Amino acid sequence: MFRKLSVFVCLVAMVFASDDGLDLKESTIPVVDLQDYFNPDTKEKFIEDVRAAFHKVGFLGVKNTKVNQEIIDKLYAKIVEFFAFDVEDKMKVSAALSDGQRGFTHFGSEFAQGSNIPEPKEYYMMGRDLCDEDHIKYNIYKNSWPEFMDFKKPAQTFYNHLEEYSVLFQEIFSLALNQDKAFLNKICSNGDTSCRMIHYPNIASKEGVFWAGAHTDVNLFTILPKATAAGLEVKDENGKWIPVFVKEDAFIINAGDFLEIISNGYFKSSLHRVKKPENMDQDRYSCVFFVHPRSEANLFPLNEWIEKTGGRKNYIKATRWEMLMERLVENGQATDGMLKELGESGVMERLMKVDRASVDAMKALRKAGYASDKVLEKLEELEV
């Protein structure tokens, strides 16, 4: 049953408030003006600045985007409305059968990388609408829309609008990689790009407990329209956690694991987290647009970037699907079917060769009975 209307009105008003809990005057991450990309006199400098930002901190503010703010505002209002429903209603579109990738995931279901503490957040995920043939061919999930409210139309409108920017940023980041501008679009066209809409409740801060623990994004890159409140932090090059703040209205974009792989580590997929500021007294809502290649796309370091980073290949060749499976198993989101598929894929053994295999994922495979002899030997070696 839907909660009292007065609560809903209060929450909607919150969406349009400015960030609370921080007293910052200047941006804390590099910021570029998107219109400089379209100016022949500033385009090269723009690309250089993007390349430098991804190399130094992995995060970038993009201002002057000309985004349709009305589309974003309408979706945020619907997000607040959805999460105000009782959990019994939200569970009607549970993501339990889709490895957490489509539909609703309730509080305490997800764990950050390397953590055994469930995260105090709930979220709803959607992606591209696919036909049955696409679903089977690419192992991509179908959307699960609630029937108790109108969520589909505003979510799809937002998704389609952000995908236009996704294609543009694929072009920009291809040039930053010194590739043809269509390089990334070739592997991302009709890919499994998804949108996660997150509710972080106003809870008492506890030592070591975060709305979202330290993690990297297992995707190509992430687009973040402004959230309803502060809380996002990134670990800088000195190992210090700093708030992610851009003083202008802007997208925040961060490089994901796949850009790091393609650049052989030159672009950083930086650790980031969401932490409730001590003096903030409100819930937080955010919309996260994860840009993904197609599931069968192979990801591997480009020779040019292997040379630029010392001549050693630091990452394995793997498909997007293989890398996603490892992360979902690590986070405790995978179904038994995915656990079995990961165990049989051989990707864990390949990751072990470059010391990049998740210990938590290996332990989950062992517990489920799908760990190979090599994985079991490695766990025994690590004594975990």
Description:
- The chain is an alpha+beta fold.
- Helices cover 37% and strands 16% of the residues.
- It is built from 14 helices and 14 strands.
- The strands form three sheets. It has an eight-stranded mixed beta sheet with strand order 1-2-10-7-12-5-4-3.
Number of helices: 14
Instruction: Measure the end-to-end span.
Output: 45 Å
Helix fraction, binned, reads 25-40%
User: Strand percentage, roughly?
Assistant: 15-25%
List low-confidence stretches.
1-21
What's the SSE pattern?
A: HEHEHHEEHHHEEEEEEHEEEHEHHHHH
How big is the Rg? 20 Å
Category from helices, strands and their pairing: alpha+beta
Strand adjacency order, main sheet = 1-2-10-7-12-5-4-3
Spatial shape: globular
Arithmetic mean of pLDDT: 89
Major beta sheet summary: 8 strands, mixed
- The beta-strand count equals 14
